[in-house]
Amino acid sequence: MLLSRSTALFKNIRYLNAKKQINTINLNQIRTCFIYRSAPKHETKWVIVSEILGGIMWWWIFWNFWYEYKHLIGHFPELCPADWTDEELGIPPDDA
Questions:
Q1: For this UniProt entry, which segments traverse the membrane (predicted)?
Q2: Quick count: other Cβ atoms within 10 Å of Cβ 76?
């Protein structure tokens, strides 16, 4: 950032030295030599293409979240309580 400002400043100083007007610096010329935090204008077709690609990306992410959720939660066997024994459930034996 300082480099872009300094080059514009030096160009203006050199221009003013050539005219022998060192004590008056034209601030409008210094301000228009660089762009700071302003977005460049894009062609409409590239804006549309980027919106379509962004939509495809989010569709892919949500599709995989919905149908391949085990990538997030892990690959564990599904538990079926009917297969557990009384000992695993903490139920005492019948003769106790």
A1: 46-66
A2: 7
Average pLDDT over residues 21-45: 64
Residue 78 lies in a domain: no
Question: Mean of the pLDDT values across residues 89-93?
Answer: 87
Task: Flag whether pLDDT at 92 surpasses 50.
Answer: yes
Residue 12 contacts residue 30 (beta carbons within 8 Å): yes
Phi, psi (rounded to 5 degrees) for 16:
-70, -30
Cβ-count burial of 44 within 10 angstroms (0-12 exposed, 13-18 middle, 19+ buried)? Answer: exposed
pTM assigned to the model? 0.40
Domain count, the chain: 1
Residue among 30, 35, 26 nearest 1 (CA): 35
Query: What tokens does 52 get?
Result: 């379509």
What backbone phi and psi angles, to 5 degrees, belong to 35? -115, 125
